[in-house]
Structure formats: C-alpha cells, structure tokens
UniProtKB/TrEMBL annotation:
GO-annotated biological processes: transmembrane transport
Name of the protein in its database record: Citrate transporter
Originating species: Hungatella hathewayi
Keywords: Membrane, Transmembrane, Transmembrane helix, Transport
Main location: membrane
Organism domain of life: Bacteria
Keyword Transit peptide: no
Keyword hit for Transmembrane helix: yes
Membrane topology: Multi-pass membrane protein
Annotated transmembrane regions: 20-42, 62-87, 134-157, 178-197, 217-237, 258-281, 293-313, 320-342
Pfam families for this protein: CitMHS (PF03600)
C-alpha cells in the first residue's frame, strides 16, 4: 500500500463523504429491516398468487426494485431467505437455483439505477460530481432492458397452478415511531447524496438518533466494507502518484474502458475496481457502466452474489455445482446482451 512514503497527503486520499453516507445508509436500512417492513411488504404482495410463474416473477422483481433504494446486498439478505422459505412451503425447491440466480442478477442490475443502489455508484457519483440527469440518462436505459430480460427469463419457469396462503398474518412493527424516524433519516441521506445537504450534518443527526433510540444498530454496519474502502482509497491514491503507472493504466483504459472495468471487476469485485480505476481516468461514464455490468460474471464480481450463494449452500449443499452452472450461464448471457446495448449509449 505504501509505494509512496506516508505523508499528510494520505488523509486527502480518503473520501470521507462516501464513508459517512455508506455508514448512514447501512444503519438506516438495517433499521427498516429490524422493523420487518420489507418482509411485511413481500407477504402482502405474494399472498394469493395463483400460478408459479407469476409468483417467481414477483420474487425476482422484489430485489430488482428494492435494491434501487436499499442496496443490492440488503435486498438479497432480505429476500433470498424469504424465497427459500416460500419454495420449501410449496414444494418447488427444484426451481430454487434458477429463481435465486435471477434474484441475484436482479439485485445487481436493479441497484445500478440509482446513486444509492450500490457502493460503487455512491462512490463514483460523488467522486466525479456526476449530474443527476446525466447519471440516470446513462443507466436507466440499461435498467429498463434488464427488467425486460429478467421478465423473459422468468418465462422459462412452468406456469403451475397454485395459491399462497400464510398461516399467520405478518406482525406489524413493534415500535411504531421508529419506521417514521428511519424514513426521515433515509430522506436526509438522499438529500446528501444529491448534494442538497452536507454529509456531516446527516452523519451527526444519524448518530444522535441511534444513540437516543436504537443503539444496537451501530453493530449492523459493515465496518469491514468501510475499512476496505479506506484501504483502496489509500492504494488508489498511491497508484495515482506514480507517473509511469498512471500513463500505463490511462492507455489501457482509453482502449476499451467499459470492458476493462468489467474484467477488472471479475477478479477484485466491482466496488474495489471502481475505487482503483477512478484514479486513472476522468471519464466517469465508461467506468460507471463497466463496474455495474462487471457485477455480472464470477461470484466475486459483485460481493452481493456471495450472499445468495451462501444461503443456497446452507439449504442445498449437494446441489452447489448445479447452482454455479446456472449462475455462470445466466450471468454470461446477461452480460453479453447488456454490454452490446451499452455500446450504443
């Protein structure tokens, strides 16, 4: 990490705005999870579904749309276990690999639609001060195409007649005041992401609210991810001060920045790839496209994909090879189509 001798300049490498907003979003979304709002919403949407294909479509679209606001990681942490429970309940576990893989792809692709959908978007949006209109103009067409592709993929699932009935009604949130508080904090986060409110104000308000109302949420933040960001900030800052490396990486990125960003993501994951490569280019558009499309591919291309894999292994440990085969085939197919579409943007 210390290719350049440590100095006061190291502090300047760290993007404290991104770290603060990531922390705030983590604990606020965890608060929503604690209230049971996401599962309650899912149960209301799924209750009464009359055929398996329709049910599968709903299960895939839940992480697709929710990831736009609660991040791809949280969407999968919430809805994959719920899906496994549903499939076990109706005796359709044989379709689990297909549906969980589609959920994983849906969360990764749905999350690219907004600056808060995934960590690399949040970082790049702030790093390059991307105008909101330009951001959405680049990624919403691909998000719309992703929606159509996911819908088409669901048609591979048989249209088996069935009906979902939950034995007991979903419990309402125990602490009625907290959902409103978390909604307020989430809106503050959005205002800060879109540069309406200073991130330090949002961080201070969030910390004070947690101290007063729900201290255990401090334990829900992914501090390892935050530390990873700090390490890559320092690493990328060091790399950027080596002129020969900067020229070399700049030349590679100029050839095919979208593909290079996507390929880099396959080996180090798309979040570190975004942080690392941002130091070698001022052209945010291909980097944004490449790191989002780069979430498709290997299980480590997007660390959110490992969440689904972990749940699947726990449920069907003897079918992991089948899952990985389906995962690889679906990811490659989606990547090739979306990469071709991205060339027209």
């Amino acid at each position: 990490m210390f290719l350049v001798p440590p100095s006061a300049a190291y502090i300047g490498y760290v993007d404290f705005r991104v770290l603060a907003l990531l922390f705030c979003l983590m604990v606020v979304v965890a608060g929503f999870q604690e209230c049971g709002l996401f599962v309650l919403m899912a149960r209301k949407l799924l209750s009464g579904e009359n055929n398996f294909r329709q049910l599968s479509w709903m299960l895939v679209m839940l992480p697709f749309f929710c990831s736009m606001l609660i991040t791809n990681d949280v969407a999968l942490l919430t809805f994959v276990p719920f899906t496994i429970l549903i499939l076990d309940m109706i005796g359709e576990k044989k379709h689990m690999a297909w549906i969980v893989v589609l959920q994983t792809v849906a969360a990764n692709l749905g999350s690219m639609a907004t600056p808060v959908g995934n960590p690399q978007n949040l970082f790049l949006y702030g790093r390059f001060s991307i105008p909101a209109g330009s951001f959405f103009a680049v990624l919403l067409p691909l998000t719309a195409l992703s929606f159509l592709l996911l819908t088409a993929a669901v048609f591979c699932i048989p249209r088996i007649p069935m009906q979902i009935r939950f034995d007991a009604p979903a419990a309402a949130p125990e602490k009625n005041a907290l959902p409103a508080l978390f909604l307020f904090l989430f809106l503050l986060c959005l205002l800060s992401v879109f540069r309406v409110l200073d991130y330090r104000i949002v961080l201070a308000v969030t910390v004070v609210c947690l101290l007063l109302f729900d201290r255990k949420l401090f334990r829900t933040a992914d501090y390892l991810l935050l530390l990873t960001f700090v390490c890559f900030f320092l690493f990328a800052g060091n790399m950027g001060r080596l002129d020969w490396l900067k020229r070399f990486m700049g030349e590679i990125l100029n050839r095919n920045p979208v593909l290079f960003s996507a390929l880099t993501s396959q080996f180090i994951s798309n979040v570190p790839a975004a942080v690392l490569l941002s130091g070698f280019t001022n052209d945010w558009k291909p980097l944004l496209l490449g790191t989002n499309l780069g979430g498709l591919g290997t299980p480590i291309a997007s660390l959110a994909s490992l969440i689904s894999l972990k749940f699947y292994i726990k449920e069907l440990p003897d079918k992991v090879s089948h899952y990985l085969a389906v995962f690889t085939a679906v990811n490659i197919a989606f990547f090739l189509i979306l990469y071709a579409a991205a060339s027209f943007l």
